[in-house]
Design brief:
By secondary structure, this protein is of the alpha/beta class. The protein has one domain (3-258): Alpha/Beta hydrolase fold, catalytic domain (Rossmann fold, 3-Layer(aba) Sandwich). Helix 1 crosses helix 10, helix 2 packs across helix 3 (101-112) and helix 5 packs across helix 7. Strands 1-2-4-3-5-6-7-8 form an 8-stranded mixed beta sheet, sandwiched between helices. The protein has helices spanning 40-46, 75-88, 101-112, 131-134, 142-156, 161-165, 169-191, 215-227, 241-244, 246-258; strands at residues 3-8, 14-20, 25-29, 51-55, 94-99, 117-123, 205-210, 233-235.
Length: 260
């Protein structure tokens, strides 16, 4: 079972962290929902082989931060914040997994902090966010914003709605607050970041897309991967394999780490 703790870092962030297991360090980075609890089953499955660390992102759920921690956000800025957490936890190097914006942050860690990264495992990067996502940045009514995000996450990002709902009422109550934090602060992380093949140079990357996701949403992942010489793989899921197929994702991550 994971042990949770509050870890302060010099940048003023107090991280809510969950850790379990022993062995090589594997760090699981949340995406736009910002809450580590979607990794609960995955962390448990991996903890028999590795030391798993995950956390709530700055400003989300139980992780608190000063206002400047959320200003002018970019994958590089969040990567630097995570390095501060790694320092506090005495994690010298790690494997990083992230889907969606979590994947962008994982790649930024590999680019800007290569001496701290063994390898990066990513799933479905938001290289060209679809119109329903882009429209959220202009929604000023928090209640309407939350309703739209609930629908998008339950129906467009997860093929197993029951598994998504099974994360529990407390989790989804936290997400209602997190949706607003994301829309008001984290949008630049996705919207203003244009990934190129040069950004992938020198990083040990394993990249997947979901076999059940609409091709139009993530075909740009395939194109960029080919340009960078990376052969993408398929997972039998949509956007959040840690929710719908955690056993498959655990085997995938385990294989990636053991090949190092």
């Amino acid at each position: 079972m994971a042990q949770t703790s509050s870890i302060p870092t010099p940048d003023g962030i107090t991280w809510h962290v969950a850790q379990q297991g022993q062995g090589a360090d594997v760090v699981l980075i949340p995406s736009g929902e910002g809450d580590h609890a979607s990794f609960t089953i995955l962390s448990s499955l991996l903890s028999s082989s590795f030391k798993i660390t995950t956390f709530d992102m700055p400003g989300f759920s139980h992780t608190t931060c000063p206002p400047d921690a959320l200003k002018d956000l970019s994958p590089a800025k969040v990567a630097t914040q995570i390095i501060g957490l790694m320092d506090a936890l005495s994690i010298p190097t790690a494997t990083f997994f992230g889907c969606s914006s979590g994947g962008l942050i994982a790649l930024a860690l590999g680019k800007h902090h290569p001496n701290r990264v063994r390898n990066v495992i990513i799933h479905e990067l938001p290289l060209s966010p679809p119109p329903p996502i882009l429209a959220l940045r202009n929604e000023q009514d928090d209640e309407i914003l939350v309703q739209k995000c609930r629908h998008i996450y339950a129906n467009l990002m997860n093929e197993d709605k029951a598994a998504w709902e099974a994360l529990g009422s407390e989790y989804h109550e936290r997400l209602d607050r997190n949706f607003v934090v994301w829309a008001r602060n984290y949008f630049p992380l996705v919207e203003n970041h244009k990934l190129t093949k040069e950004d992938l140079t020198g990083i040990n990357v394993t990249w997947t897309v979901g076999a059940l996701s609409p091709m139009e949403l993530y075909f740009d992942n395939v194109v960029l991967g080919v340009q960078a010489g990376i052969q993408l793989r398929l997972l039998p899921s949509m956007h959040f394999p840690q929710v719908s197929v955690p056993e498959v994702l655990a085997a995938h991550i385990k294989g990636c780490v053991e090949k190092l």
